[in-house]
Amino acid sequence: MEYVRLGASGLKVSRVVYGNWLTHGPHTDRADAFACVRAARDLGISTFDTADAYANTEAESVLGEALQHERRESLEILTKVYNPIGPRGHNDSGLSRKHIMEGINGSLRRLRTDYVDVYQAHRFDTETPLEETMRAMADVVRQGKALYIGVSEWTADQLRRGADLARQLGIQLVSNQPQYSMLWRVIEQEVVPTCEQLGISQIVWSPLAQGVLTGKYLPDARPPGGSRGAGAAESGEPLLNRFMQPEVLRRVQRLRPVADALGLSLAQLALAWALKNRNVAAAIVGASRPEQLKESVAGWKANIPPDAMARIDEILADVVERRPEMTAAMAPKRRPT
């Protein structure tokens, strides 16, 4: 495993981050969850990403328990605030001072730690003045409850405004956490150049396009039982449904010869591809079984030569989403309740 600086800070994170968005909670056996965390550590992963809203706070609790016997100084723990938690009351979401202060205290309690390394604004809050949000974040840092701050899925303009306020307040905005994969490249035109100027790194989520880039979903065939794809239509997940289109699945299957020529699985190819972007410090992977994690992480540092990169672009072509305005389009227009 390699460890790289996050943004313009001195903090180093592992190139692969273990995330527990969908893998720690009421539908996952705790023993399996603990085994995945142990496997992550054995692979050299030191950075763990979660959020208070994942499984309505339970994901944080499981991660805190799984890491309780690890040396805290050897870990980087990232969590987030914004999405609704608890009974989903009128102040149980957003980036108000009230919710941020209550949120960090709850997260620290569940994670069994005195501080998190990066405290992230899970989305942009259109109902709270940005100045209020950044002042509250600065106070969290000054109180020693977080060392740095980050954001997730902010537009280029929001990032510029946030970074400017952070500098005025004497704190460091070091990271953005956007979706990014071979199929979803909306950050490339505006967000990435802006972040390079501001000294902000990307920690990308869903580099496997929610499992589609593993090749397990075949065009014109029923998704495997128990997979996310099997329930995509019923669950109403718009992004996963976008990826589950037959033409997209056909193009993904055409990537197999590219992966085979490099001695990689499709999952390994997808992860290595995401990490080739120079502004991507790390990519988040999740797993419900240790063997899944070991397989996908095995090829993270594979070299994808220019001709293979060009072939990937040629194959995927018009099924790739590149429009920068999709960052704003996918963002909540008001706080979720």
Task: Explain what the structure shows.
- Pfam families: Aldo_ket_red (PF00248).
- Residues 16-316 form the NADP-dependent oxidoreductase domain.
- Keywords: NADP, Oxidoreductase.
- By secondary structure, the chain is of the alpha/beta class.
- It has helices spanning 30-42, 58-66, 97-111, 130-142, 156-169, 191-198, 232-235, 238-243, 246-253, 256-261, 266-275, 290-297, 306-316, 326-329, and strands spanning 3-5, 12-14, 16-19, 47-49, 76-81, 116-121, 146-151, 173-176, 201-204, 280-285.
- Helix 1 links the parallel strand 3 (16-19) and strand 4 (47-49).
- The longest helix has 15 residues, at 97-111.
- The protein starts with a strand and ends in an 8-residue tail after the last helix.
What are the SSEs and their pairings?
Layout: E1 3-5, E2 12-14, E3 16-19, H1 30-42, E4 47-49, H2 58-66, E5 76-81, H3 97-111, E6 116-121, H4 130-142, E7 146-151, H5 156-169, E8 173-176, H6 191-198, E9 201-204, H7 232-235, H8 238-243, H9 246-253, H10 256-261, H11 266-275, E10 280-285, H12 290-297, H13 306-316, H14 326-329
Parallel strand pairs: 3-4, 3-10, 4-5, 5-6, 6-7, 7-8, 8-9, 9-10
Antiparallel strand pairs: 1-2
